[in-house]
Amino acid sequence: QYTPPPQQAPQGAYDPQLAQQLNNPGSKVDPMTSYGLAGKSSQEGVLLTSVRSGTRAAKAGLQKGDIIRTVDGNEVMQPEQLNQVFSQYNSSQTLPILIFRQGNLTPVQF
Prior knowledge:
- Helices cover 23% and strands 27% of the residues.
- With 110 residues, the chain is an alpha+beta fold.
- Strands 1, 2, 3, 4, 5 and 6 form a six-stranded antiparallel sheet that branches.
- A hairpin with a 2-residue loop joins β5 and β6.
- It starts with 15 loop residues before the first helix and ends with a strand.
């Protein structure tokens, strides 16, 4: 019986949080995770604690340390708010995001 060799994931593609969610039957993957983002609340918005390479977020130019202020004009201060805003759109839509990076407000098309 032939057993194919294990596939190796591209570097930076493995996300333990996403793997845990996918391995739990009945669990739902939140929009931030599905877009390759992890973040936490800050006084200025949602501070990105990681951006997985090769994801929509990385392709849009988002980086670890960016602070998301608004998505499509909606202010976000907590990851839950960001998930709520993301869940109102489908993945084929382009969303204007305003981020705070290195002291400057920067628009990003996501």
